[in-house]
Amino acid sequence: MNRAPLVARKMLQYPFARAYSSGVAAAVASAATSTVDGPHTRPVVKTAIPGPRSKALLEEMGKSLSTSQVAFFTDYEQSCGNYMVDADGNVLLDLLTQIGSLPLGYNHPAVMAAVSSSSALTPLVTRPSLAMFPPSSWPELVQSTLLPLAPRGLSEVTLMMCGTCANENAFKAAFINYMDVKREKPLTPDSEEYSSTMLNQPPGSPKLSILSFMGGFHGRALGTLSCTHSKPIHKLDIPAFDWPVALFPRLQYPLDQFVRENEMEEKRCLAEVEEKMEKAAKAGEPVAAIIIEPIQAEGGDNHASPNFFKGVQSIAKKHGASFIVDEVQTGGGATGITWAHESWGLTEPPDVVTFAKKMIVAGYYTTLDKRPKEGYRIFNTWMGDPIRLVMLKAVAAEIRSKDLLSQFRESGDVLLSGLRELEVQELNCTQELFFGKEKVSLIERSATPFWYTGPGARVHSAPLTATPPIRETPSFQRFAAKGLIWEGVGRWE
Amino acid sequence: MNRAPLVARKMLQYPFARAYSSGVAAAVASAATSTVDGPHTRPVVKTAIPGPRSKALLEEMGKSLSTSQVAFFTDYEQSCGNYMVDADGNVLLDLLTQIGSLPLGYNHPAVMAAVSSSSALTPLVTRPSLAMFPPSSWPELVQSTLLPLAPRGLSEVTLMMCGTCANENAFKAAFINYMDVKREKPLTPDSEEYSSTMLNQPPGSPKLSILSFMGGFHGRALGTLSCTHSKPIHKLDIPAFDWPVALFPRLQYPLDQFVRENEMEEKRCLAEVEEKMEKAAKAGEPVAAIIIEPIQAEGGDNHASPNFFKGVQSIAKKHGASFIVDEVQTGGGATGITWAHESWGLTEPPDVVTFAKKMIVAGYYTTLDKRPKEGYRIFNTWMGDPIRLVMLKAVAAEIRSKDLLSQFRESGDVLLSGLRELEVQELNCTQELFFGKEKVSLIERSATPFWYTGPGARVHSAPLTATPPIRETPSFQRFAAKGLIWEGVGRWE
Fold it and tell me: What's the cofactor (chains A, B) (predicted)?
C-alpha cells in the first residue's frame, strides 16, 4: 500500500485513455518508486480477459462454487507488488488489491519472511482459542503490534475474524454498555431478563437500535446488514431490524464555491440525526450506538467535513449512545494517516473504532471501561488468528521503516495536483477513471490526501435481473484490455 | 481427532477420580494408540494452575485485552498431539482441543508438512478475494478437498471465515430462496423492493423468520444469536429478532425403559414445531428455514431420534422452508462418520449443512439450485481462506489413510462399554466427568458412537454477577490440578 506505485499506475494508464498531461507525468515520474522489486514493470496484455484458461477454470469452478462474481483466475505465485498476473499470463496493474486487503501488495518479501520463520509454524497449524488459552507470546505480540497502531485514546482491543464480525461485536459491546449504564439494580438469578432473553423477548433481549447512514456499508451479517445502505442487491429479500437511517451529507463541488450550501447541508443532516434519535427513543427502541464511516467507500466515496463528524459524536454522547467509527475500509494508513478519523480533530476519541481488510486482522478498539465485566458475552471460538497478527507486525514495521505514510501523503499531493490539471483541461478521459470532475473535487475535500481504497460505484438501484457477472460488463472488458483492474468501475454499469 | 487418545485420556484420569474399573482399563489399554508420536505420554502437573508465569502474563494481557475467559497461557510450541503444555511447563491432557477445532491435535506433522511446502507460502501471505479473483488452483483444491467430504446429495459449497458467518449466510441463502419461489413477477428497476430495502422496510426487507430450538447454539452475530438458546449470558442485553423457538425433545433414560414416553415426547415437540410454523405464517412472518443441530452440544448434549429429525425435515418441506443442519460442532468426523446427520437415514438430503471448527474452513454445503442467480448477494471480501483449505486437505488425507473414523467407532464402543460398566457399579466418580448416569445413557442414545466434541454444560440461568473467570472455578482448579482440561465442566459451576 504505497501511493507512489498508485501514481505510477495512474501514469501508465493515461496513454491508454488517449489523453495525457505532461505536467502530471513529470510530477508522477518523480514519485514513481516502489517498495517491491519484482519482475513486472508495466502491464502486458496478451489475451482477451478472461482468457481461455480462465474460461476453462470458470467452468470447472462452476461445478461446486458460485462464479457470479469471478472476474478471472489469478496466478498469485507470479503476482508481485502492484502487479497481478492472471491465469493466462496477462500482467495487470491492480488498483484494487483484493478489495483493499493487501496493504503491501502481492508476495511482499517482508511478509513472506515473517511467516516463513520457524516460530510462525505453530501459530498457523495450531489456531488457538485465544480468549481461553492464549499463547504465552500473545500479550507481547498484541502490545507490540496493535497498541502502537491504536487510535489516540483507545487501548482496549478485541479481535475477530472479519470486518462484518468486528462490527457485529462492536454493536454487541455498545448494547451491553448501554444496558449496563441504564440498569438500576443488579440482576439476580431469578431476574426476568434471563428467562425472557432465551425466547428473544424483552427485557432480556431489549428493544435497542443502531443508527446508520444512507450510503453506508458495515457488513453483511443480519445486524450489520441492517446498517448497510449502499446497494439494494446486498439487502434484498433479507429481513432487517427496523433501525433508523439518517441521510449522509451530499456536498456540492468545488467546495470553495459552495461553502454556505454545504454548511447548511451538514446542519440539515445533523438535525435529522437528532430527530431520528428522539423518535427512536419515543418509539421505545432507543439508539444505543451510531455507526459511521470516515469516507463512505462502498456507497459512492462520499465525504463530509470534520465538523459534521464532531456533530454526530456530540449527538451520540448527549443520548448516551456509543459513537462507532467503522474504519474497515479507511483504516491502516489508506488516507495517509493510520486512522482517517484522526484528521477530524476530536477532543475525545470515538467510543469504538472497528477495523479489518488492510489491518489483516479484524476487530475493534475501545476503552477499558467499555470491556464487558463478565466473560462469554463477546466471545467466539477463535477470537482472532495469531498468524495474521504476525503478518500485521511485519507490515507495520515495513510501513514505519520505509516511512510509507509520508510517501502516501506526497504521492497524494502529486495525484491531486495532476487531477486538478486534468480538471482544468476538462479532459473526458478522467470521466471513467475518476468518476468525472466531481471526483476530482471529492478528492480535494478530504482532510488528508485521499487514496482510493475500495469499491466506489455510485448508489443506484440496478434491477436484480440485470446484474451481469463482473467479467461480462463492458467497463471491465475495456479496462482489463488495458491491463488495469479497477473494481469500482467494473462492477456496476 | 482420534478416539483412541480420547479413551487413553479417560483411562488416565480415572485414578485421579478415586475410582477405577479394571474391565474398562483393559479394554481401554488395547485401544490406546495415538497417531502422533510426541514427547508427552501422560500429564505432569508441577505448579498450581494457572501457575506463576500464567498469572504474570494474565496481568500483562489485561492491559489491552479482556481476560475474563482465560484459563491459563499455553506454550503451543511444546504442545503435541493430545497434550497441551502450559506456560509453567505443566503437561495437560486436553479433551477440549481449542473448542473442538483442532481435528488432529497440536502440531500434527502432516499439517505442518502441508503448510511448510513452498506452494503454501503465497496462499498465506496473499489472502485473495476468492469470489472475484480465485487462484488458478482453486477449483481443483475445492473439488479434491471439499467435494469428497460433502454430505450425500450436496455438491455446492460456499466458504466463510467462521461458524457464525456460515450460519448467518445459510440464513441469507434460505431467505433469498424463499422469496425466489414466492415472487410472482420479476423485479423491474422501479420495483418498490429496491427502495424499501434501503430503509430496512418490506417488501424489500421482508418479514421472514428462522425457527430454532430451545437449547440450540448457532452463533453470536445478531441473526444467529436470535437462534441461539443455550445460555442467557450469550444473549442478554442484545436485541433479537422475534423469531419462533420450539422445544427440543427431553428424552428419558435408559431409553429401553422409556420407549413409549420418548416417542410421545418427540411427537409433542413435532406438533409444537408445526404449530409455531403456522402461527408465524399467520402473524405475517413466515418461517423461511428451520435450523437444528444433530446433537445439541453447547446446550447440554441433548439427543433426539432419527425419526424426530425426519419429522422436522418433513414439516420444513411442507411449509416451503429450508431444512438447515448445523454441523459446526458435530461435523468433520466427530461422531465416527463425517456428518452426524447421515446416521438419520434421510431419503433426501438437508437443504443446507453448515460447518466450521474441526473442518478448519467454515461454510455451508447446499444444492446447485439453491445458489443465488445474482452476484454479490452472498459475498464478502475473502469468502474463505485458501491456507485453511490446504490444512483441511492434509487432515482429510490423514483421517482417510489411517482409517481414523474406524478407530473413532471402535474406541467409541470401548468407551461406551466401559461407561456402562461404571454405570452398573454406580461409581460416583462419573458424576463430574460424564454428568452422571444420564450422560452414559445419552451416549447410548446416539445412532453412532458418541464422541464428546465441545462445551457441554447444562442449560441454566447463572446470574450475571456470579460468573467467575473459568480459571477461578472450583471444578477447573480440581481438574487442572489433575492435569485434565475439560472445558464443559469448568465453565459453569
Answer: pyridoxal 5'-phosphate
> Which residue, of A349, A376, A395, is where some domain finishes?
A395
Residue B284 lies in a domain: yes
Domain final residue, candidates A395, A414, A441: A395
Q: Write the CATH number for B475.
A: 3.90.1150
Is residue B38 over pLDDT 60?
Answer: yes
Q: What is the pLDDT of residue A148?
A: 96
pLDDT under 50 in chain A at which residues?
1-35, 426-466, 487-493
Give the closest-approach CA distance of A129 to chain B in angstroms. 5
Q: State pTM to two decimals.
A: 0.88
What is the pLDDT, as a whole number, of residue A470?
75
Residue B47: active-site member: no
User: What is the predicted pLDDT for the residue at B355?
Assistant: 98
CB-based contact B206 A237, cutoff 8 Å:
yes
CB-CB neighbors (< 8 A) of A470 in chain B: 132, 375
Portion of chain B with pLDDT greater than 70, in percent: 81
Same domain, B388 and B416: no
pLDDT for res B56: 97
Best mutation site among B222, B361, B470 for testing chain A: the one with the most A CBs within 10 Å? B222
Cross-chain residue pair A164–B165, CB shorter than 8 Å: yes
| B287 and B154 housed in the same domain | yes
Query: The domain containing residue B70 runs over which residues?
Result: 3-95+404-491
What's the pLDDT at B178?
A: 97
b/e per residue, A20-38, with b = 16+ CB within 10 A? ebeebbebbeebbebbbeb
Q: What is the ipTM of this complex?
A: 0.88
User: What number of residues does chain B have?
Assistant: 493
* Angstroms from A377 CA to nearest CA on chain B: 5
Examine the domain organization and report whether A385 and A410 are in the same domain: no
pLDDT confidence of residue A456: 30
Note whether A227 and A301 are same-domain residues. yes
Are B137 and B30 contained in the same domain? no
What's the domain count of chain B? 2
